[in-house]
Amino acid sequence: MGRFDPYENNGGTCVAIAGTDYCVVAADTRLSVGYSILTRDHSKIAHLADKCVLASSGFQGDVKALQKNLSAKELVYEHNHNKKMSCPAMAQLLSNTLYYKRFFPYYAFNVLGGLDSQGKGCVFTYDAVGSYERTGYSAQGTGAALMMPVLDNQLKSPSPLLLPARDAVTPLSESDAVDLVKDVFASATERDIYTGDKVEIVVINRSGSHRECIELRKD
Amino acid sequence: MAWQQPMDGSHASGSKVAAADGPGTQRTQYPYVTGTSVIALKYKDGVIMACDTGASYGSTLRYKSVERIKAVGKHSLIGASGEFSDFQEILRYLDELTLSDHMWDDGNSLGPKEVHSYLTRVMYNRRNKFDPLWNSLVLGGVKKGPKGEEKYLGMVNMIGTHFEENHIATGFGNHLAIPILRAEWCEDMTFEEAVKLVEKCLLVLLYRDRSSINKFQIAKITTEGATIYPPYSLKTHWGFAAFENPSKGAVGSW
């Protein structure tokens, strides 16, 4: 029969886009295993702090454990510092938490989005073992390879080689960014079997966070 | 990419993660005595759960009267497929859990959501130690919550993947029963309608799952408590012309 495999890929895609005073974080709600769909209505998004939202895809057991772990650490931070964790602080914590299990990783592909301490949109993108980078936008998961080229084209990311460094945060309006997210999800759903059913879109801005769900193709 | 793992859910393919075993210790490699599918769905008064009463030892049908659905506390039912001895171990853990909860004597009792959460953590932690409980568990129940009587139905598998749904099936049921349930389930079915739908799924599994047997138990959980009905069989139809004389029309001995 062969040895037991502690991982499985439950599929799905996560995206985040940072704007001048908002951040859009979105993920589909399909949970798959192999060629089966387990459920069409499973959230991959965790609200870790009021201006900080994490979307993760990969192995759902690890994703849920990771999100629970971070939530608990955030609560301890609140008790110790008498304030909620900022997005950049959570970004570092997530990186450290992932690297802690460097030799038995959380099979989770993360995108962290929110507002930084200046109220500007920020997006942090990760690999499974914690290496991370602050960017203007990112996609992770099974449909990421289908989405990133479209995002690169539409959001016109400045070259990282430019000096002085240019801001990657998009000048697009909040509604334009949300429309772009809907478009990339519709596109990825066409060709990625693990992406579809519904997309949950969370927008974080000065007044708090707002959530909407859009139907996607169910095949 | 370094961490591309096989996408399929069989958990039996070669693992790329090296796990050092101490001398004289062993870890679960594969299951021995296994139960097949469990199916469950929410209906008007609560949750209905059903499975067959067989337990196989590889390809041998070793045990024919095994109860794979049990009541947990006052509000829940648990059904298990996979390694039967691991299910018995889980029932022992749940006994300890419900006993210590009862001993608080604070008028509170564990609902299905809490039991599901507990089981998820147990399964995930065992997976982390490379010593899994080789089961897929179905947890259903009804408990009064802030919005009135709340029905709950969820599943957790051997590596800790878990979710909630209106209808659940494990093992072969995922492939054969879920399509039927997705097409025909609706909100607030009566008990009779729910049983009919469950029997339709059980029949398909009986015909097409090699490890299923024609002896089933249906259980339900409502606000009045858990009821596990005595085992019974379904009528099957084998009167097809092609089965009458199977070798008719066969050319030669090869």
UniProtKB/TrEMBL annotation, chain A:
<keyword id="KW-0539">Nucleus</keyword>
<protein>
    <recommendedName>
        <fullName>Proteasome subunit beta</fullName>
    </recommendedName>
</protein>
<dbReference type="GO" id="GO:0005634">
    <property type="term" value="C:nucleus"/>
</dbReference>
<comment type="function">
    <text>Component of the proteasome, a multicatalytic proteinase complex which is characterized by its ability to cleave peptides with Arg, Phe, Tyr, Leu, and Glu adjacent to the leaving group at neutral or slightly basic pH. The proteasome has an ATP-dependent proteolytic activity.</text>
</comment>
<dbReference type="GO" id="GO:0005737">
    <property type="term" value="C:cytoplasm"/>
</dbReference>
<dbReference type="GO" id="GO:0051603">
    <property type="term" value="P:proteolysis involved in protein catabolic process"/>
</dbReference>
<dbReference type="InterPro" id="IPR023333">
    <property type="entry name" value="Proteasome_suB-type"/>
</dbReference>
<keyword id="KW-0963">Cytoplasm</keyword>
<comment type="similarity">
    <text>Belongs to the peptidase T1B family.</text>
</comment>
<keyword id="KW-0647">Proteasome</keyword>
<comment type="subunit">
    <text>Component of the proteasome complex.</text>
</comment>
<dbReference type="GO" id="GO:0005839">
    <property type="term" value="C:proteasome core complex"/>
</dbReference>
<dbReference type="InterPro" id="IPR001353">
    <property type="entry name" value="Proteasome_sua/b"/>
</dbReference>
<dbReference type="InterPro" id="IPR016050">
    <property type="entry name" value="Proteasome_bsu_CS"/>
</dbReference>
<dbReference type="Pfam" id="PF00227">
    <property type="entry name" value="Proteasome"/>
</dbReference>
<comment type="function">
    <text>Non-catalytic component of the proteasome, a multicatalytic proteinase complex which is characterized by its ability to cleave peptides with Arg, Phe, Tyr, Leu, and Glu adjacent to the leaving group at neutral or slightly basic pH. The proteasome has an ATP-dependent proteolytic activity.</text>
</comment>
TrEMBL record, chain B:
<keyword id="KW-0539">Nucleus</keyword>
<dbReference type="GO" id="GO:0051603">
    <property type="term" value="P:proteolysis involved in protein catabolic process"/>
</dbReference>
<dbReference type="GO" id="GO:0005737">
    <property type="term" value="C:cytoplasm"/>
</dbReference>
<dbReference type="GO" id="GO:0005839">
    <property type="term" value="C:proteasome core complex"/>
</dbReference>
<feature type="region of interest" description="Disordered">
    <location>
        <begin position="1"/>
        <end position="26"/>
    </location>
</feature>
<dbReference type="InterPro" id="IPR016050">
    <property type="entry name" value="Proteasome_bsu_CS"/>
</dbReference>
<keyword id="KW-0647">Proteasome</keyword>
<protein>
    <recommendedName>
        <fullName>Proteasome subunit beta</fullName>
    </recommendedName>
</protein>
<dbReference type="InterPro" id="IPR023333">
    <property type="entry name" value="Proteasome_suB-type"/>
</dbReference>
<dbReference type="GO" id="GO:0005634">
    <property type="term" value="C:nucleus"/>
</dbReference>
<dbReference type="InterPro" id="IPR001353">
    <property type="entry name" value="Proteasome_sua/b"/>
</dbReference>
<comment type="similarity">
    <text>Belongs to the peptidase T1B family.</text>
</comment>
<dbReference type="InterPro" id="IPR050115">
    <property type="entry name" value="Proteasome_alpha"/>
</dbReference>
<dbReference type="Pfam" id="PF00227">
    <property type="entry name" value="Proteasome"/>
</dbReference>
<dbReference type="InterPro" id="IPR016295">
    <property type="entry name" value="Proteasome_beta4"/>
</dbReference>
<comment type="function">
    <text>Non-catalytic component of the proteasome.</text>
</comment>
<keyword id="KW-0963">Cytoplasm</keyword>
